[in-house]
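Predict structure. Chain length: 477.
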Amino acid sequence: MDGDDCSFPPDSSDGHSQRGSVASSATLSRAQDVLVYLCGDSAVHLTVEGLGSVSVQELGRSVREALHIPETAQDAFALWLSSPLLELQLKARHQPYKLCRQWQDLLYRFTEASEEDISQDEPCLQYRRNVYYPKSKELQIEDEGVLRLLYEEARGNILMGRYPCDPEHWTTLGALSLAIDEGTGLDGQQITTTIRGKKLSSFLPVHVAMGSGGLLSTLRGKSSRQTGLEQNLLEEYRKISSPAGNSPEPTQLLHQYLNTCHNLPYYGCAFFGGEIDKPVQGILQRAKRKAVNVGICLEGVYVMDVKEKHVLLGLHFNELSWDHSYPEEQGDSHILWLEFDGEEDGTPVNKLLKIYSKQAELMSGFIEFCVELRSASEGGAAAEMDGEVGAHQQPGGQDGNNKNGRGGRRGMLRRQSSVVCSRVQSLNTISYVDNGKEIKRLKPKRAASFFTRQVSAATYSAATYSAVQVTESLEQG
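Prediction complete.
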């Protein structure tokens, strides 16, 4: 992500990339064809002069002109370099060609991919939603072309399971997608034919459409399961269709789809890969890890189980403290540390979640940038909104005036059945208090955060941060 200047190595760090650029400089001075991919199956074909030195700002202007993006929505999108191994939103000053030449270096630095996978990976230039674009502004967009671009990206994230959602959400979204793509005038037979022709995975998340479980359960229940899903889609589609013949406008359907996605707190997040420790089930069991996606946006941080497609931990910025640590020895991992409030046997404690990832530095810098950007752009409005959210999340009987930080408690996280809600009790966290001398994994009293990187709920301001010195005893947790 572009939230931190540490994201990309300088040109001088890549000798072979420099030689490649110099060798092709004569060619690059001529007009070159460039494909900028959109979410979905389309692309913008551009002819660019001086490709080797063209900036993201210049290239973005050409894409906006080709797509007729109105000036009011020009900040809704950004250029990304994406591949199956890494996704990076680019800054206006970046030069895409030079970053493509450095792509292998970026993969070695920020991924755990094998040398063979890295050698075969190739990024593509994408025009996607700007992760810093507020959802409130998105609601004001009326241009159908812009709404369709946002819809295609949101739909892709729903279908691939990147945005975990409950049955009522994915059924509604699937029916809306059917109405947007095929119209609202289909009868029951036409709907069934369309769904079976395009497959359920074109309208519902793949893990839902394909089902789960063993081979026998799949063979036994596949037909009845698909019939049930088709029936649910049909019933939801009929709610959208108007019996009086007053079909909703395409922009209305697109707005409805995006508004439904806005109910998911991680809509619009940038995603990073990582792993967390699994809870140990027995004395003899070896410690294992599970893969997670870490979504970060202007509102907070969300840790999601890649396999189970649900949220493990969701925190607004006023509910957490954070930092990252570098490997100290060979074989150690980069770690993003998330600290939040919890309880152990009814006693308030600080909880630490370790996220192992070579993208920890990127994530930490991105969190910091989001906090600063939010503070600068929204000011008092952001503080007021966070206060309302904090009061809404507090358990009954708690005083809504309690503030985050060293003088008070942050809102407690509660387990619910929805995939959107946190599952704190399923996490393998470090619980600790600070007795003023050293970090101890004991719980005699509540202590303030030992992280200095945290946000005040009252002001939502980004203070001057200093690095956290993670103690040996903590690392061993």
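Summary: The CA atoms of residues 272 and 294 lie 5 Å apart.
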